[in-house]
Amino acid sequence: MIAAKPKEAYKWAALLSKATESLRICLAFLVLLAGCGSKLPTLSPTLHPVGTPAPTTRPASPPTDTPVSKPTTPEATPTQTPPSLVGPLVVGSYADFQVQAAIPVYDLGTRRSVPLPFSRPANTVFIEDWSPDGCQLIVSPKPSGQVASYLLNVVTLEVEPFTIQAYDSMLYSPDGEWLAYVDDQGDDSPRPGNVYLLNIDGSKHVQLTDDAKRHRLDSWSHDSLKVLYWTQQQGSPGNGTQELRAVNIHTREQCVIARFHEPLSQWEDLYLADVDSCRQISLPYSGSLEKAAYVGLIYSPGHRYVAIILEPIGGGGDFVIYGRLFLLDTKTKNVYPVGDGGMYLSNFLAWSPDGTILVLVATFDGQTENGPVYLVNAETGSIQALDIESAYAPSWSPDGQMLAFQSTTPDKGPFIYYPQTKEVVDLPIGFGDYMMGPLLWSPRMSYNPEACR
């Protein structure tokens, strides 16, 4: 996904303080949501290709491996009774152990919060990712700046430690065989952060990049063959060339998936390529962009549509982006504007799991806070407003039938929204006190007594 997975993203407090960067890097959720056909007459409900008549229809459609030494002292398995889970589960990405003694996970099947014991000394803890089978969480306590990582089984409560160097973010491969991470030594370190692979059983450790540039982990390709990462070619954020690269984990061959210079002055300087083939995607829209200071690309490998956000110099603020939103159809090569002009967008946008519905929090009337939530259907061009407000940081359930939001209302926790029935399920207030980014959904939609054992 051309966008940082909302944990890169990743440590959420830092992420929110760099909202523009997280949107520009932002990482993706993709399933068709039924019932998004209603249009808003004031928001150009049909998206027309720039400079062309409106279409009548829009069809849907290795290097030497180094073994990793693991701790010789086994971790004690918690004695607590394993929870009875129904699923699906959601968990926040950030927690404060000064307040919470366990990791709170919410079970949508039982509609109750399940505290997962994790007795490790730490001031804060980051939930990095779910395993693809929905059985384990990557948990990273951060005591006094140290990094220690664990795999926590949500069914058996078993905790398995593994040892790596300091890292910026970590992501499971879709096939569950690898963990990709960036060896991050901090912003003040002269040593660059390179991209590494760690086999899930700790038997192989592979370095994928070796250069003097800093890297930011983005996502995996859908077939688990490529790792996508951002690199700064020159200058500083907001003044330099940004590249998104894909590296084959077996051959280490690389290709550029996206490239642009900030500020971006014309459409011709925006380069996009297909993740699978590495072939360039032609952009029919040409001409001046009036110096877009920031560029946001929200795209998931293997899917058809790309959202492009262009922010002019001086637009937006710390927690919102002001700019234009376009949708690129990589099959027809058409670029479609959303709305009639500029809009204020919140920090996070997310594609449905099938890559056809984009959810965003935005305002078109000049106001910058508490905007409505919209669903933009890239296949039909319709825009639907949801009857919820004071929401941000959306994330889709794996089946595309539910949305999780953080709330901007004081003293209110996150909530789950069912677009088809308009039902709202409020999560416990303690569940969201220290969880500022999008909630992470378990890939598994249902659990049984033998799951994950």
Work out the number of β strands: 31
**Second-tier CATH architecture:** 7 Propeller
Taken from the alpha-carbon principal axes, the silhouette is globular
Helix count, DSSP H or I runs of 4 or more residues: 3
Please identify which CATH superfamily we are dealing with.
YVTN repeat-like/Quinoprotein amine dehydrogenase
CATH topology: Methylamine Dehydrogenase, Chain H
Report strand %: 35-45%
Structural class: mainly beta
Largest sheet at a glance?
A: 8 strands, antiparallel
How many structural units, i.e. domains? Answer: 1
CATH class: Mainly Beta
Description:
- By secondary structure, this protein is mainly β.
- 4% of the residues lie in helices and 42% in strands.
- The protein has three helices and 31 strands.
- The radius of gyration is 21 Å and the shape is globular.
- The model is unreliable at 1-64 and 66-78 (pLDDT under 50).
What is the structure about, briefly put?
4% of the residues lie in helices and 42% in strands. It has 453 residues and is mainly beta. An eight-stranded antiparallel β-sheet has the order 17-20-21-22-23-24-25-26, covered by helices on one side. Strands 13-14-15-16-18-19 form a six-stranded antiparallel β-sheet, with no helix packed on it.
